[in-house]
Write a structure and sequence with these properties.
It is a single chain. With about 300 residues, the protein is α/β, with parallel strands linked by helices. It folds into 2 domains: about 190 residues, Rossmann fold; about 35 residues, no CATH class. The protein has a 6-stranded mixed beta sheet with strand order 7-6-3-8-9-12, with helices on both faces. A two-stranded antiparallel ribbon has the order 1-2. Strands 4-5 form a two-stranded antiparallel sheet. The chain is globular and about 60 Å long.
């Protein structure tokens, strides 16, 4: 994404999202965003025996083993939520079409959720990550904080091509720096080196964590557009391919399917819910779909 222009300033972005996304979400969800995030901003209160319908993520396995009866933890909700956006801004987020980069989706998502949270008196902060932690924005509340996030994201430069991203330092930052139970959004395309599941799993033990996975349909299936140069979004390596070749397109799709399956298993092992957003999907539809799915699993 280029530097901000008169058409892409923080104020304009927030105004667009207020009208085209947030108002629609308010209408669909009736202002009740508990189906999007629950268990956030809470302090431990007590233990009680498990009852059908309880969230098994709050199971206390030590007490369960000791008592030979399932027990769950209960929490007191705080009035104020602190939310953190752990943002993967590595080169692969600049993949997509001119008008639909994964980076564009990332900015719209962050500004939308920051606006939803801060307008109710909550605080939001962010960490920008490339090959390392590039910038930390302390958690604060208010509309000004939402505008600051938008401004800093617009001004964040694209990074040069590099080896595959390693997300472990970003997640380990969260483990060490987030002291109080918080709502944590890990926003990435998860095109990265393996090994991030363990720190992500540890992060979920102390926080309410949502993995927000960005993707583009062209990463899943190649169109038949003839001979083209394909470039690795992370490393910049180029490969000349003939997309007329049905066999090559099939192998590409099969490889993408295997990556999807492996990613799904990794998220399951880490114990996180996943909000998956395509560059070609309406943001409201993606969020409502996720909220409905999460609400259904809690019943």
């Amino acid at each position: 994404m280029s530097m901000p222009t008169s058409a892409s300033t923080p104020e304009r972005i927030l105004h667009r999202l207020d009208w085209k996304v947030i108002r629609r979400l308010d209408g669909v969800l009736q202002g009740d965003y508990r189906s999007l995030f629950y268990g956030y901003g809470v302090d431990f209160a007590d233990l009680r025996e498990y009852q059908p319908g309880d969230d098994i993520r709050y199971m206390d396995w030590n007490v369960t083993a000791r008592m030979n009866t399932p027990y769950v933890r209960q929490y007191h909700e705080d009035r104020e939520i602190t939310a953190w956006f752990l943002l993967d801004l590595s080169p692969s987020v600049d993949f997509g079409t001119v008008d639909n980069l994964k980076r564009t989706v990332l900015i719209d998502f962050v500004v939308t959720l920051a606006r939803l949270l801060t307008r109710h008196g909550n605080r939001v902060g962010a960490v920008f990550f490339g090959s390392r932690v590039e910038r930390t924005i302390p958690a604060r509340g208010g509309r000004i904080q939402t505008l600051r996030l938008a401004n800093d994201l617009l001004r964040q430069p694209r990074l040069p091509r590099a080896p595959f991203t390693n997300l472990k330092p970003l997640l380990e930052w969260g483990l060490h720096a987030i002291k109080r139970r918080s709502l944590v959004f890990v926003v990435s395309d998860f095109i990265c080196e393996p090994g991030w599941e363990a720190p992500l799993s540890l992060l979920t033990r102390k926080n309410e964590v949502l993995a927000v996975r960005l993707w583009d349909p062209r990463e899943m299936e190649l169109p038949d557009i003839g001979a083209v140069f394909m470039e690795d979004a992370e490393t910049g390596e180029q490969l000349y391919v003939d997309t007329h070749d049905a066999g090559f397109r099939r192998q590409f799709a099969e490889g993408a399917s295997r990556r999807e399956a492996n990613l799904g298993r990794a998220f399951k092992r880490a114990g996180v819910d996943v909000l998956s957003i395509s560059t070609e999907e309406d943001l409201v539809s993606a969020i409502v779909r996720f909220a409905s799915s999460r609400q259904h699993r809690r019943k």
